[in-house]
Amino acid sequence: CRGHCQQSINITSSPPELVASKQPNFPQESYPPVQRQFPFSSTQWEQLVSLLDLETFTALDNRIGCPGCADGGIEWIQVDWADATKRVTFESGQLFKGLEGFVVNLRQMREEYVAQL
């Protein structure tokens, strides 16, 4: 992939912010990494967290399907708690029963904030 192929958002409650970034898969002079912080209110945080069924998320395998196979895209979601971390990597565009709203919301936020970079 040529250009800013990797796009991500990192949302934290403390400090309350969203960091959006995009970068190439390999160093490319024409496409330097870009990153920007955005405010993220406690209301936004509560709305996002309300979409996460923690029991369903933690029950998922760490890797689902064959992300990146046959030139397919890769997505991942990581949730950090005070005493644990769970990261799930999966094929781009995939949804999970019980987490559809959470995943779709994250994708929409990624598109919205990365577009402002």
TrEMBL record:
<protein>
    <submittedName>
        <fullName>Uncharacterized protein</fullName>
    </submittedName>
</protein>
